[in-house]
Amino acid sequence: MDKIAITTGDPNGIGAEITIKALKKIDLPVDKIVLISNKKILDYYGKLDKNYEIVEIPYETKDIKAGEITKEAGDFEMSEDVAEEVEELEFSEEFSEMEE
After folding, report:
1. Can you list the pairs that 26-31 forms with residues at least 24 positions away whose Cβ atoms lie under 8 Å?
2. Nearest-CA neighbor of 3 among 61, 64, 85, 80?
3. pTM
4. Cβ distance 61 to 41 under 8 Å?
């Protein structure tokens, strides 16, 4: 099944908040969306109203400082294990063509 992957970016930025608001507004099917983030970061910025699949990127919640530039937020990235998990997802044909 084709899926759309959405990353939320910098833990101290607006990406998670915008992602949550957008998903509530555009009402995409749960089985078509994969969030690449951290559940604790998403919970910090709001609540998802559906049970979307989340590819978990490890991050310490105590380091979230909304709107601030920090070393910890700058170091937030996908590990090789998470990258491999993302590569195993099946994306839509349009997305696959964009990668080439």
Report:
1. 28/4, 31/1, 31/3
2. 85
3. 0.71
4. yes
